[in-house]
Amino acid sequence: MDSKSIRRAFLDFFREKGHKAVQSAPIVVKDDPTLMFTNAGMNQFKDYFLGNKQAEAKRVANSQKCLRVSGKHNDLEEVGIDTYHHTMFEMLGNWSFGDYFKKEAIAWAWELLTETYKLPKDRLYVTIFEGDTKENLERDQEAYNFWKEWVAEERILNGNKKDNFWEMGETGPCGPCSEIHIDLRPEDEIAKTPGKDLVNEDHPLVVEIWNLVFMQYNRLLSGALEPLPAQHVDTGMGFERLAMAIQGKKSNYDTDVFQPMIQFIAKKSGVTYGENDKTDIALRVIVDHIRAITFSIADGQLPSNNKAGYVIRRILRRAVRYGFTFLNFKEPFLHELVPSLAEQFDEVFPEVKKQEEFIIKVVREEEVAFLRTLEIGLRKMEQIKEELRQKDEITIDGKIAFELYDTFGFPLDLTALIARENGLVVDEAGFDKEMAEQKARSRNAAATETGDWTFVNDEQDVEFVGYDMLETEAKIIKYREVKQKKGSVIQIVLDRTPFYAESGGQAGDTGYIEFDGKKTSIIDTKKENDLIVHFVKELPADVSGTFKCVVNATKRRDTANNHSATHLLHSALRSVLGDHVQQRGSFVSEKVLRFDFSHFSKVTDEEIAEVESIVNGKIRENIALYEERNVPIATAQAMGATALFGEKYGEFVRVITFDPNYSVELCGGTHVLATGQIGSIKIVSESSVAAGVRRIEAVTGIEAEKFNVKQNAILEEIKALLKNPKDIVKATQQLVEEKAKLSKEIERMNLEKVGALKQTLLNGITDKDGVNQIIAKVAVPSADALKKLAFEIKNEVENVFMVLAVDVAGKPQVAVVVADNLVKDKGLNAGQIVRELAKEIKGGGGGQPFFATAGGKDLSGLDNVVAKAEGLL
Ligand code: ATP
Ligand code: MG
């Protein structure tokens, strides 16, 4: 079975069992402070488990794009070294949200593996949770009994808390689990060591393929477990491992998921996969990492210098570095794998194909930049080698190794490798120490501690009414404290809220809640998954009241201006620049709007003017907002609504239209009722944010007015300075031209002056034991002129020794010139001499043995310089 059929068979199987096949969530997580990347299929359903939200369907199945490179689940160091852990992998899953539980989950898993996929029963093992006395958790006898119906008892193994109690993170939903492992070893090895002894022992051919998690608890910050409101099933099967098992391979990389890419890169680098450990690892790292990079970019996360973007940049660099070191790639190569991925995933993850050109461009530019850094790093390494040679040492300091790592992206093993090749060693302990210190620093900087929820009400459903009203009455459902470095805040959840939570690039609402005449300010509103969280500095005195909730209307209105203007801008950009323009990110607050989009060159001033004019035209048309809620996603797409990559859309969406022929977008934000309210737009900047991504910043409404008023004021000021000419542009032009003319004239006069001065100096040469000595106090117009003068004299006069005490436009300087032969024969050194003389003008300086200068503070010391110089020879 090829991998595409394996994936299809999984979804078909669970469809038949009443499951709804749903989309993978984006691999990059947006509204969850505890998670950067999706690390398991269950992430997107977290709110269902916690009871924050009702599931749309009770039985669901999908293939989820996962990335395990940070946080609780981090497999990065294994990847490429072993044959069954990836950074990015697909997790096939079936879910029950408060519906079926252990019995069905177990029976169906067994049926799918042994009947649909025909995996041999005598090579499968299952594990159950053995219990844990410390946590006071019992053995999962229930699961054991259900397995017994299908599996021989000696194949059902006990597993400990580490392997058989699944937790998403430090807090959150969790529960006992049952894993299914497969033994892929040859018969003779199985005869020697029974498979059950190798389960969960990190054997590359006895691996876990599926984990059935029975969600029952919520882990609190205190470490305590509380039962969830309902019981759920969450399963996750590694798609690439499953393909290995079904296709009878010994490594994930031998399946059709990876082989085309491996063969491509092997051929390109002239190696054969399977012949050499080092090049094999490099090939595996490369074909693994390009998937993580490609899918992250496709879901909107560009490589960058912080947070998730930095994780992606690091992965990319790791791949480039393996190619550079082990496969001798000195030119960009990674991006050439993107088309293969676009092709392979066209059916399940079309976002790659749709953005193929863009992804290639981004990856390529990153590669080019990193290869340049690598080169600089290698040169730095040469320098370090030289320094060590001079000191007759062979150990590269841990600090230096860390600098190479931190600044140049040289991992320790690369530094160690180059060191070895040059007969040097690295102080690895010192490196580790630096690394630990840096980690501690960033941990401290980011340290927040989120408390557990305190419930005021057992109401669960939260209603957002902010599209229709800015005021309402509401009760607090729950609250918790978040301790941060910059001070603590309290988050509260209301049963009904008019406050828009920051999302889709739109800033969150502010305002207040009021009870019993006492107001509590809402300083921000954010989303956490699907929960709307209000931030306050202090909890209201009585949390059980019914509050009047009021949104700051002015801020909301100005924000809406910017948000609607963003939609108008998006369409205008597409019509002026072309259909390749895709939104790459946006931010709207009450002050500005920022819009990032894919485009491969600078947007010219003419294009900006055209875009601005189109948008202003649409504003004046005063187009009425047409808002539709709960539109089935397919209908919305048929309407031509623009959806964004990397955005998580439910089954029903909201569509915002300003003229069906102009702007139709899927959007959850708040908007103006008619475009006239925006007033006008003014684009204030255009810049580059990353390879292939441009950014436009603009202001609207009152801010646009302020901007224009300010620009006008500047103009008036300039006019006044120019004495109110009729044509201000012409007057400025004249001013500039005149200035250029005058500068030239001054330069010419200076040259003349210096020419005359030179003649005077030449006339004053004295013979001092065969040395042509010139010592004088002079004035020159600029440091450049002084230098020019010094060099001319040095070239024209043999055996010259010259000291000039100079007044350079009011500043004291000393210049010393020594003929080359005097440097050699008499050991004279202009640098040393100038330092000595500079004391007289309270200054310092230096230079080369034949020419040096010094600047100072005391003009009156110039005569002393002359006097001192006279006695030097
Ligand atoms: P392992 O112990 O092998 O690292 P795990 O216990 O971390 O696996 P789970 O968190 O239970 O795995 O994830 C469910 C399934 O996803 C696993 O059974 C496995 O098939 C697959 N899986 C987990 N991590 C990876 C990975 N890094 N690469 C590929 N597949 C993985
Ligand atoms: Mg793991």
From TrEMBL:
User: What Pfam families does the database record attribute to this sequence?
Assistant: DHHA1, tRNA-synt_2c, tRNA_SAD
Please state the Enzyme Commission number of this protein.
6.1.1.7
Cofactor(s) the protein needs = Zn(2+)
- Tell me which residues bind Zn(2+): 563, 567, 667, 671
Q: List this protein's GO terms for biological process.
A: alanyl-tRNA aminoacylation
Keywords from UniProt, A to Z, are: Aminoacyl-tRNA synthetase, ATP-binding, Coiled coil, Cytoplasm, Ligase, Metal-binding, Nucleotide-binding, Protein biosynthesis, RNA-binding, tRNA-binding, Zinc
Look up keyword Ribosomal protein and say if it applies. Answer: no
Q: Where does the Alanyl-transfer RNA synthetases family profile domain start and stop, copy by copy?
A: 1-710
Record's catalysed reaction(s): tRNA(Ala) + L-alanine + ATP = L-alanyl-tRNA(Ala) + AMP + diphosphate
Q: Where in the cell is it found?
A: Cytoplasm
**Annotated GO CC locations:** cytoplasm
Question: What's the main place this protein lives?
Answer: cytoplasm
- Which InterPro entries does the record match to this protein? aa-tRNA-synth_II/BPL/LPL, Ala-tRNA-lgiase_IIc, Ala-tRNA-ligase_IIc_anticod-bd, Ala-tRNA-synth_IIc_core, Ala-tRNA-synth_IIc_N, Ala-tRNA_ligase, Ala_tRNA_ligase_euk/bac, DHHA1_dom
Example GO molecular function: tRNA binding
Tell whether Zinc is among the UniProt keywords.
yes
| Coiled-coil ranges from the UniProt annotation | 728-759
- Cofactor binding note of this UniProt entry: Binds 1 zinc ion per subunit.
Main EC class the enzyme belongs to: ligase
Which family does the record claim for this protein? Answer: Belongs to the class-II aminoacyl-tRNA synthetase family.
Read off the domain note.
Consists of three domains; the N-terminal catalytic domain, the editing domain and the C-terminal C-Ala domain. The editing domain removes incorrectly charged amino acids, while the C-Ala domain, along with tRNA(Ala), serves as a bridge to cooperatively bring together the editing and aminoacylation centers thus stimulating deacylation of misacylated tRNAs.
The protein's job, in short, is: Catalyzes the attachment of alanine to tRNA(Ala) in a two-step reaction: alanine is first activated by ATP to form Ala-AMP and then transferred to the acceptor end of tRNA(Ala). Also edits incorrectly charged Ser-tRNA(Ala) and Gly-tRNA(Ala) via its editing domain.
Q: Which HAMAP family match?
A: Ala_tRNA_synth_B
Recorded hits in PANTHER family, A to Z, give: ALANINE--TRNA LIGASE, CYTOPLASMIC, ALANYL-TRNA SYNTHETASE
Q: Which NCBIfam families match?
A: alaS
Q: What is this protein called?
A: Alanine--tRNA ligase
**Protein source organism:** Fulvitalea axinellae
Q: Which gene encodes it?
A: alaS
